Amino acid sequence: MADILTKNKYSNMTPAERKAAKAKERSRKPLRTVVHPTRIVAYLVQLTIAIYAYDFLRNHFLMLVLSLLISAPILDIIALVVLYRGVDIKLTAPERDVSRFSVGYLKLEIFNRSLMVSYDLNVKLDAESTFYGDKSGTILSLPCSAKGTYEKQIPIKYSMNGIVRYSISTFTIRDLLGFVSVKKTADAVAEVNVYPERDLAAKFDMTDMSRGMTESEESVKKGHDFSDVSDVREYIPGDKLMSIHWKLSAKRDILMVKDRVSMSDQQMVLLVELSGTDEEVDDVLTLAYAVVKRLVEEQTYVKLMWWSEGRFEFESREIMSQENLKDAYTDLYYETIYVDSERTKGYMISIHPELKAYVNVCMKDGNPEVVVVEQD
Fold it and tell me: What is the structure's pLDDT at 295?
């Protein structure tokens, strides 16, 4: 329930506003200082022994040792305060897009602007799958060098599709003598998009799927170029202005145009079911990705649809390239998994009665399958 309330609380904010609100909320929380009594008791025992030894022997060397023992805690706390002000953390994902079952890396950097050091800086790294709602965390114990940057590459294997959000909200700095630990807030965040495998090959009957093909509506055709980019070349007089690659032209300081291969003026309506267990939905997403990928390679225009439980309506994306497919899945990963898949078919009949047939990727008898649904 707490997670639901948190999502609703930030649902109407932009990503920048949400980030600022969370940072402000964290800043209100008092920083917690943990005292380690075992270390303090051990220090007091050593100090007591040094006092008695000096009182008995009256040795100059013991006087020096006693002076160091008395001044060490004061210097230690001062060093901790200076280190606390000078240390900061950054978290990045060098590879923003990865494939399922691949190994990716997170880059954790500890910046220290002070001359103080710490041999025990504990970082709490949290991981959350925004689509499946899974959360996990781990504690990393790292060193902090003086006036420098410590980098650590963290290997991670991704087993399911979705967006994985990594965050560090707090880290703990411990003094050299080990008397106290102080928590400091941080705002280090990195997100990784996990897509199905690049070389995934799905087996399905294209002949049967052709029954889900419908003519593209004129309202959809207008303003869209049903083609796929095959190459980029220099501008030749007579080329259409809409084919100019403006970003690349600006970089090269010369007009560049996109060569296109014409695609079909028909569309394949494909509905992805987001119902079932996490593992079932993951299998459905993987199969749907492979199906759309193959259709796009065969220059078939795909209209990818799914039921949005949060907005209580169908979401649709026009897929004409691999980049369109990845963008659509990125949006899909922010949806909510629901239970009843049968009501989706009922919604489709009532909301989109104009569709005579569509392709449905769903779970059937415990396996993900491609099914053509014909609407009366």
Answer: 86
Query: Model's pTM, two decimal places?
Result: 0.71
Angle at 76 between CA 71 and CA 82, to 5 degrees: 130
| pLDDT interval class at 343 (50, 70, 90) | confident
Question: Rounded CA gap, 85 and 80, in Å?
Answer: 9
**Which tokens belong to 327?**
């963008």
Q: State yes or no: pLDDT of 74 exceeds 50.
A: yes
Q: Give the distance from CA 20 to its chain's centroid.
A: 18
Query: With left for phi above 0 and alpha for psi between -120 and 50, is residue 312 left, alpha or beta?
Result: left
Question: CA-to-CA distance for 98 and 63, rounded, in angstroms?
Answer: 62
Q: What is the pLDDT of residues 95-119, one digit of tens each?
A: 899 999 899 999 999 999 999 988 8
Longest dimension (CA), the chain: 104
**DSSP one-letter string for 167-198:** EEEEEEEE-TTSSEEEEEEEEEEEEEEEE--T
CA distance 166 to 98: 15
Dihedral through CA 75, CA 77, CA 78, CA 84, nearest 10? 140
pLDDT of residue 108: 94
Contacts of 244 by beta carbon, 8 Å cutoff, 6+ apart: 235, 255, 256, 257, 258
- Least confident interval from 100-109, 184-193, 218-227, 244-253: 218-227
**Tokens read off for 236:** 């030749």
d(CA 239, CA 237): 6
Element (H, E) at 250: helix 246-252
Amino acid letter, 101: F
Q: Is 345 exposed, middle or buried (0-12, 13-18, 19+ CB in 10 A)?
A: middle
d(CA 203, CA 259): 31
The pLDDT score that the predictor gives to residue 14 is 59
